[in-house]
Amino acid sequence: MHTHTFFTPKEIKEHCTPSDCWVSKFGKVYDYTNLIKRSPAKLVEALSRSAGEDVSSWFDPTTGDFYKISNPLDENDRYRLPLGLPTLHTADVYSPIQQEIDHQPITTVDAASPTVENPWWRDQSYCIGNLTKNAREIDILNSLTSQKHRLEVADELTIAEIAGRYNRFNSNCLTGYQWRFDGQPLKMDDTLTNNKIMDERPIFLKLGWPQDQWHIPCIILVWKDECM
Question: pTM (2 decimals)?
Fold first, then answer.
């Protein structure tokens, strides 16, 4: 489980297909791509449909399991399944197919209990990071080429981690450039805020400025040969 990395909702939405399925849940980000690939499509359809979204509403925050509802026919509790669809590791759909997936005998179980000890929604091996508490925009200007890119990043990321996100635009951004803001070199192992690149949106909101006029902080990349 890798939980040191932070992602924005926009980044999660980029992984929005069954063959590339990320979701967020209670502040964590999960990659269920491999689970979907190795499971019968009908038992992971809810996940496939919800790729790129937050699925916290499916689960009881107290137990971590699906919410329970009472079946009016037998007055027993059952899981409230997402989108009303059959779902992997729930008793409502326990079958020979499910038995093969779970690698255990079919038994009589409470319909509001998982059919395996560690069902997919509790399995933290799918967790790849955290959902940011504050997504913000920054501009990154390459002073050598005059190219500027705007990124939405998690406020908790270090400058080095932001460079990793920016790497798709410039593969030499870490080794070939010095990162600067307001004329000063940035501390690569510190966050934007710790480098005094402040999030000024609360001020703009308080002043009632139109959003299209908000100032976006700009980091300057300076070719290292020019720094000598």
Answer: 0.83
Q: Architecture of 133-226 per CATH?
A: Roll (3.10)
Kind and range of the H or E run holding 11: helix 9-13
Nearest to 111 by CA among 83, 81, 135, 141: 81
Number of other CB atoms surrounding residue 82 within 10 Å:
19
CA–CA separation, 216 vs 214, rounded Å? 6
Count of CB atoms situated within 10 Å of the CB of 171: 10
**SS3 breakdown of the chain: % helix, strand, coil, rounded to 5?**
25, 25, 45
Those residues whose C-beta lies under 8 Å from the C-beta of residue 205, and which sit 6 or more positions away, are: none
* pLDDT tens profile 145-201: 999 999 999 999 999 999 999 999 999 998 999 999 999 999 999 999 999 999 999
CA distance readout (Å), 69 to 20, 74, 88: 31, 12, 18
Spatial strand order in the sheet of 6-7 = 6-7, 127-131, 28-31, 20-25, 16-17
Choose which CATH entry (3.10.120.10, 3.20.20.70, 2.40.160.20, 1.10.287.1700) describes domain 6-130. Answer: 3.10.120.10
Q: What band does 41 get if pLDDT is binned at 50, 70 and 90?
A: very high
Tokens representing 54?
Answer: 């937050």
Say if residues 201 and 211 touch (Cβ distance below 8 Å): no
> What CA dihedral angle connects 46, 32, 63 and 11, to 10 degrees?
-90
